[in-house]
Amino acid sequence: MDDDHMAAAAVAAEEGGSAAEELAYRLRQQLLIAEYGQHALGVHDVSELLQEATRVCALGLNSEFCKVLEYLPDEERFIVRAGVGWKAGVVGHARVGADAASPAGYAFQTGKLVISNHLGEETRFRTPAILAEHGIKRAINVLIQGNGERYGVLEVDSPNVGRFTEADLVFMQGSANLLGAALERQRVEEALRASETRLQEALAYQEILTHEISHRVKNSLAMVAGLLRMQKNKVSDPTMHQILDDARGRILIIAQMHDRLWRANEVHMVDLAPFMDGLCDQLGASAAPGQTLSCDFAQVTLATDQAVPLALLVNELVTNAFKYAYPEGGGDVHITIRPIEHGQLRLMVCDQGQGLPPNFDAASATSLA
């Protein structure tokens, strides 16, 4: 995700962005979702969890305003529980109507996603006073819910003229799904602390929810891969085609790593050999005719946050070898991961191909090609 083409300005097409800028915009949204999912796994404070969600969503939609509205059943209203951009005294105090005549209330009551791109001309809903006071012109609302229980609404608001789109809804829904799962995990943890007699049941349920977050990260990344495929069909530049294919391939690798962890019931630690064998099967299947991939992995256990970057590195090295090692025909690429001293591992990706060019300088190289 740190390639040079990712440095392009992140601007949506609806705001005048080019194809490359639109790509950077959507990739940044999905990277934010993935990072938030990882962050949510380690957070045990609800206020921090909610506040980080508003920061991420505001950043993802290039807006200065975002809020989490928590539903208060006794009052049948929302309270602004967390937010960014609002005047002093709003977060933690301001109440908003939760009836279906407001955008947030409609999203909460029906569970439907709501885009209001012209609040001043809106005939479906009234404009809440808090939005009018801050000069908000458009809003996007999605439901936050855990295991069937509705918590409230996640809302991004913008004072600028423009359009929120269906792709923005995908980003918002992915964020709300992660937040809902994390809030449900918090609820389970509170139940665990309150009742020692339900200790084992609550721990098992927490583990399920942790898997669910990883699963939702995988699904969100799969959605952006689909968006990249759609974006590729809209451009004719071969260079942009290659950039989109490379970006989509990397995102799918991350998604498949999350899927493999989820299905293998591995959350914190990974058995390296079967984990990497699955990646090798996938890379070998994508090789050109005559190309083969052989693997030798140590039977060791590795932390998940180390295994996933390792898998991405292997993907880059093997893909690069398949592309450039054997320009005249097929050949073998061999991967080895073995333990060395002091608990370290050595990764080797080898081929018998043409080797590095005569003028290759590792100190000044900017890519693996």
Question: What this model shows, in words?
Answer:
This protein has 369 residues and is of the alpha+beta class. It folds into 2 domains: 4-232, 2-Layer Sandwich (Beta-Lactamase); 269-369, 2-Layer Sandwich (Heat Shock Protein 90). Helix content is 48%, strand content 18%. The protein has helices spanning 19-42, 46-60, 103-110, 129-133, 166-194, 199-232, 238-263, 272-285, 304-324, and strands at 65-72, 77-84, 95-97, 114-116, 138-145, 150-158, 269-271, 292-297, 301-303, 332-339, 345-351. The longest helix has 34 residues, at 199-232. It is globular, with a radius of gyration of 24 Å.
User: What is the CATH class designation of the largest domain?
Assistant: Alpha Beta
CATH architecture of the largest domain: 2-Layer Sandwich
Radius of gyration: 24 Å
Mean pLDDT: 83
What is the element string, with H for helices and E for strands? HHEEEHEHEEHHHEHEEHEE
CATH topology of the largest domain: Beta-Lactamase
Which parts are unreliable, with pLDDT below 50 for 5 consecutive residues or more? Answer: 1-9
User: What fraction strand?
Assistant: 15-25%
Count up the domains.
Answer: 2
